[in-house]
Amino acid sequence: DWFSVKETGHHRPHDRYLFLFKARILVTKVKRISGDRSVFLLRHVIRLPETSLGCLDHPKQLEFLHIEAEAHPNYPITIEARTPECREAWLEGVQEHVVETGV
């Protein structure tokens, strides 16, 4: 699904196509190589067992905090779905893999 992805240290979010695969979120950039063909360039991997969820108050955003924040300065990473329904579907998919912190 398409998301806007904002990493700490970057000034603006980037539109990225995300895949949920085996307790990981693969953050990709889509590059069109011809009129009807595109390739996905891997930009980042969010390893869900190494993260916890931040504030869940925003209806279209999910925030991922790294459990070793000092060693991973690009966290927190915030992803914003195009719709609240998409965000809810992704929240269901990632909750079983992230570390529970009681936030």
What does this structure look like?
The mean pLDDT is 92. It contains 1 helix and 7 strands. With 103 residues, it is mainly beta. It has one helix at residues 84-95, and strands at 2-7, 14-21, 24-34, 37-47, 51-53, 61-66, 77-81. It is globular and about 45 Å long. 12% of the residues lie in helices and 49% in strands. It has a 7-stranded antiparallel beta sheet with strand order 4-3-2-1-7-6-5, covered by helices on one side. The two termini are 26 Å apart. Strand 1 and strand 2 form a beta hairpin.
**Average of pLDDT:** 92
Q: How far is the N terminus from the C terminus? A: 26 Å
Rg over C-alpha atoms, rounded to the nearest angstrom: 14 Å
Helix and strand run: EEEEEEEH
Query: How would you characterize the largest beta sheet?
Result: 7 strands, antiparallel
Content-based structural category: mainly beta
> Strand arrangement, largest sheet?
4-3-2-1-7-6-5
State the share of residues found in helices, binned by percent. Answer: 10-25%
- Overall strand count: 7
Q: With helices defined by DSSP (H or I, 4 residues minimum), what is the helix count? A: 1
Q: Approximately how much beta-strand content do the residues carry?
A: over 45%
Write down the overall geometry.
globular
Residue runs with pLDDT of under 50 for 5 or more positions: none
